[in-house]
From TrEMBL:
PANTHER family: PHYTANOYL-COA DIOXYGENASE DOMAIN CONTAINING 1 (PTHR20883), PHYTANOYL-COA HYDROXYLASE (PTHR20883:SF51)
GO function terms (MF aspect): oxidoreductase activity
Enzyme class: oxidoreductase
Superkingdom field: Bacteria
EC number(s) from the headed UniProt entry: 1.14.11.57
Keyword Oxidoreductase: yes
Name the record gives this protein: L-proline trans-4-hydroxylase
Pfam families reported in the protein's UniProt record: PhyH (PF05721)
């Protein structure tokens, strides 16, 4: 994470009011470790059980909420952006998260409207003002209508917690006013048959290679010699 965040790259989106990286996109295209991570069986195999055997890597990124100053993510469905900007036909993609820090009630956890995916794809508008990363968001009146009879779920847990959710689930997150930064790794896998039909967004945001991802062995990240990383010696 520190390596890719230190790069001056268009794939590193910074906060609107600071020079702090908010999201680092295209990780598996930029770093060998992340290239293995997106093929780790603990991601790939559960995703295949849910969405089918032939999945491509749509997106890999790390989202960070910097302590004190971390910005919000507006209420949204991932499918709104995937459909309008990338031409993805159906809301079949899966978002697979791993918490890189402890996530608590105070450092900007993700909020979900439980069962909101059952309402299907909602109206959306393109927000270019609220944050540094413009995208399609769910209008306030839709959030009220869909959420008034449903529970909100706050996704919290220790570092290493895994989370999987679908393309139509309405979610967002508040600003981080706490003294604790939180970072979350996100991998989005989509069925090859549901692949993008537009290339409006750059490749580091929606990847062009639709070759089905194949799982590596479970130890692919623990054998340092295979990652080109030298162990420290005394």
């Amino acid at each position: 994470m520190d390596r890719v965040f230190s790069e001056e790259s268009a794939a590193n989106v910074k906060e609107k009011n600071s020079n702090v990286v908010r999201t680092a996109f295209g990780l598996h295209l930029r770093d060998e470790v992340f290239g293995k991570l997106v093929r780790h069986p603990r991601f790939v195999e559960p995703a295949q059980q849910i969405a089918g055997p032939d999945l491509y890597v749509m997106q890999s990124k790390i989202n960070v909420k910097e302590a004190i100053t971390g910005e919000m993510w507006q209420w949204h469905q991932d499918f709104a952006t995937h459909h309008r900007d990338d031409g993805v036909p159906e809301p079949l993609a899966l978002n697979l998260h791993v918490f890189l820090d402890d996530v608590n009630e105070f450092n900007g956890p993700l909020y979900f409207i439980r069962g909101s995916h059952r309402a299907g794809a909602s109206d959306a508008h393109y927000d270019t003002v609220t944050t540094s990363h413009p995208w399609w968001v769910v209008p306030t009146e839709v959030v009220r209508k869909v959420g008034e009879k449903r529970d909100l779920v706050s996704a919290t847990g220790p570092a290493g917690t895994a989370l999987i959710f679908g393309d139509s689930l309405i979610h967002g997150s508040p600003p981080n006013l706490s003294p604790w930064t939180r970072a979350i790794f996100s991998l989005i896998l989509d069925p090859v048959a549901n692949r993008y039909t537009k290339d409006k967004r750059p490749e580091h945001i929606h990847h062009r290679d639709v070759t089905p991802v194949t799982a590596l062995d479970d130890g692919c990240l623990t054998d340092m010699s295979r990652l080109g990383v030298r162990k420290a010696t005394a």
